[in-house]
Amino acid sequence: MNTKLTSQRLLQRAKISSIGTYVPDRVLTNADFERMVDTSNEWILERTGIRERHIAAQGQATSDLAAEAARRCLELRGMAPDEVEVIIVATVSPDMPFPATACLVQGKIGAHQAWGFDLGAACSGFLYALQVGAKLIESGAQKTVMVIGADTMSSFIDYSDRSTCILFGDGAGAVLLEAAAEGELGIIDYAHEIDGSGASALRLPAGGSLLPASAETVANKQHYVHQDGQTVYKFAVRKMAEIAEKVLDRNGLTGQDLACLIPHQANRRIIESTAQRLGLPLDRVIINIDRFGNTTAATVPLAMGTARDEARIKRGDLVVLASVGAGFTAGATLLRWEMD
Ligand code: UT7
Question: Rounded to whole angstroms, how far apart are CA atoms 298 and 152?
């Protein structure tokens, strides 16, 4: 018998071993928006919790943001780019429809041994990519997977539409997945859901195969983000708590067992409501929407970076990452923090 074909690979656990984040230098404050559209700092702050967001420079694309986050992630781990085996980029704002942004990142950071691909699930993209990466490690197939959440939403925003332009920012966060050591739990479990009945509530209508780019689609502003804010809000405020409870329930846990909730940053009110339903005081919830706005696939890794930078999390802590986004998509990951 050919043992190479039949030998079982041992299951092992995956853990996050490093985090790198990057946001562009340019900042748009609420005061800047007061000069651009009919809005006010008070409205934006009260309805969303956002004070400012970072915006990519002209010519700075999602692969640039992602590559910088990846470089920082590797540097903090002390790992050479050649040691990265897989690159997964979660994004809805790739540099272009193809080639995949993962290929562009691979070239930019010089990860000569890596294969990879993009994954599109809007604001839940990073959590879904994290699970795919974890499964590649758990199966024994790969030793190092770089998972990146990166979006340059400013390229799809109509800066004359006050209902959407104030919400989004640009940024990237990268994590390295490796095999957990003896006694480490790392990534423990996940709950994911998609619901296509909400597809029209948040979308970029044109530029795909349904409505290819034309002078008409541009004139109709169909290459910009369109959102029915109330519908998305109602779904998100219910689903974010439900999905987090789902992953806790099936592991015999409650919000009380968590050291930290790291949620998608779309609206401070959604985060606060989720925390309340989970019974978590806000000092155990990572909120950085005031500084970055909604960076789509980048919010969760950026918030993980904030948790680390502010020493809000320590080795051995139980953490839930949670997200809801366009699609609809929803996700929650339960993990034990295995970094100092
Ligand atoms: O990450 C993907 C998932 N996305 C989300 O989770 C976003 C979910 N939705 C939201 O966070 C909220 O719906 C928004 C922040 C987008 C909007 O807040 P809202 O409290 O739902 O406002 P609204 O859309 O119901 O609008 C209320 C009023 C309207 O005026 P009228 O019709 O009552 O006169 C809007 O025209 O607020 C007006 N408005 C604004 N006023 C000042 C909308 N945008 C603005 C603005 N400044 N920027």
Answer: 9
Kindly report whether the global pTM for this prediction surpasses the value 0.90: yes
Which residues lie across from 117 on neighbouring strands?
A: 88
Dump pLDDT digits (tens) for 256-282: 999 999 999 999 999 999 999 999 999
Fold of 3-179: Peroxisomal Thiolase; Chain A, domain 1 (3.40.47)
- The superfamily in CATH containing domain 187-336 is Thiolase/Chalcone synthase (3.40.47.10)
Residues with CB under 6 A from ligand 1: 39, 43-44, 47-48, 123, 162-163, 166, 202, 229-230, 232-233, 236, 266-267, 270, 294, 325-326
pLDDT at 69 over 70: yes
For residue 192 the two structure tokens come to 């994911």
3-7, 77-81, 316-320: least confident range? 3-7
> Of all atoms in ligand 1, which is nearest to the CA of residue 33?
48
Domain boundaries for CATH 3.40.47.10 within the chain: 3-179, 187-336
* 223 a catalytic residue: no
Q: Which is catalytic among the residues 30, 54, 103, 123?
A: 123
Name the percent of the chain lying above pLDDT 70: 97
Q: Which residues contact 53 (CB under 8 A, 6 or more apart)?
A: 27, 28, 168, 169, 170, 291, 292, 293, 295
